[in-house]
Design brief:
- The chain is an alpha/beta fold.
- 46% of the residues lie in helices and 13% in strands.
- The protein is built from 16 helices and 13 strands.
- The chain has helices at residues 17-27, 52-64, 79-90, 99-102, 112-127, 141-149, 169-179, 202-214, 233-236, 238-246, 281-298, 305-314, 317-347, 355-359, 371-381, 401-414; strands at residues 34-35, 105-111, 133-137, 154-158, 160-161, 166-167, 185-189, 218-223, 252-257, 269-275, 364-366, 383-384, 390-392.
- The strands form four sheets. The chain has a seven-stranded mixed beta sheet with strand order 2-10-9-8-7-3-4, sandwiched between helices.
- Strand 3, helix 6 (141-149) and strand 4 form a beta-alpha-beta unit.
- Helix 5 (112-127) packs parallel to helix 6, helix 8 crosses helix 10 (238-246) and helix 13 (317-347) packs across helix 16 (401-414).
- The chain is globular and about 65 Å long.
- Residues 18, 38-39, 140, 142, 194 line the site of (2S)-2-hydroxybutanedioic acid (LMR).
- The site of (2S)-2-hydroxybutanedioic acid has 6 residues, from loops.
Amino acid sequence: MSKIDTRLNVSPVPPDEIFALNGAYAVDPHPQKVSLGVGVYRTDDGKPWPLPTVQKAEKELVVDDDLFRHEYTAIEGDVPFLGIARDLMFGFEGKQGENEAKARIGSVQTVAGTGANHLGALFLAHHMKPPTVWLSNPSWANHQTIWELAGVPRKTYPYYHAATRSFDFEGMMSSLESEAQEGDVVLLHACAHNPTGLDPNKEQWVAIADLCERKKLFPFFDSAYQGFASGSVEEDAWAVRYFFNNKPDMEMCVAQSFSKNFGLYGQRVGAFHYCTNRASTTIRDIVVNNLCHLIRGEFSMGPRVGCSIVKKVLTSEELTADWHQDLQVMSSRIKAMRKALYSELVRLQTPGTWEHIIQQNGMFSYTGLSPKQVYALKDKYHIYLLKSGRASISGLSQKNVAYVAQAIDDVIRNEN
Ligand code: LMR
């Protein structure tokens, strides 16, 4: 490569695959193009779906004049929002006796889920110095970047069993059992694992929690799909709540995103929760104080419009009930599209087995297509998905599912 004329010591880094693909899709003029790349919810017409409940909340906020208040918040963020976000994640219902559990959790507002992952990684790198962070293989590619930037050595634990297209629970457990060291961080996807769509069942979560406790590992949950995956906020928070309630001596943390479940992708709404192992507001406050130090040095405080919307919805019984309906709409449409794709592939007698498409959970399907087949889908059919074979099911619709299935059938038969 020719020498770059700069004082910097830089060489090109690969572009982010998800957003590069999104850009390529946007400028593709082909009338039948299909975006199965970035994880965003789309309607059956392939259009973005501002949640009706969010639109109602926006109108009310405009009338109250709250949406357009552009004052600074506190460094930790919008404090009432943080209480609401924590209660949603950990299942607090304003009952007596919850104060002790709440005193274990220090929360700050972040720049969505990515920001929560990043802040958490930086915080642990500074104050816990984990020897290693264990990421699932595969995982959301940005986890690698985030922990690399935090300067923490990364290793992976097996997660996906390619031959059976299933969750490799035994591989995960035996690898962490034999190789993870005390003080290591284990990154866990709270639900709707990205990219495989395969989650541990409850019994397996219990075993993972036991292993973390026994080996003194630090669980770091990434929760990006609460309510979006199953339609139920309780179900999708089950693992986080189990760890928190049943392993009170084990510290842990949660990166919480509101991008998918509220459709607030560009608003960057999120929170980071650090759970200490004793109900001490003194310790909790020191944790928050140190998180604020990192926040102040980087972005001063999280943005306020998106979290005002979430706050408006979750402080109104009526809007909360409407939001639960919206979650049902999104999760049911995704499940219906999984079934539609599966049925088309079966009808076409596409070689291979396709049950995994209906068995996987959440936004993505790990299709099992090879990189060569993925490239052919893009070149011949203008269908965009990640080279790992991850497809965002939300990009499917009644109008394009037959086209996509027929294209998959072609590349499966002809691109080996
Ligand atoms: C995805 O995985 O496509 C989404 O979570 C969007 C992102 O930030 O990568």
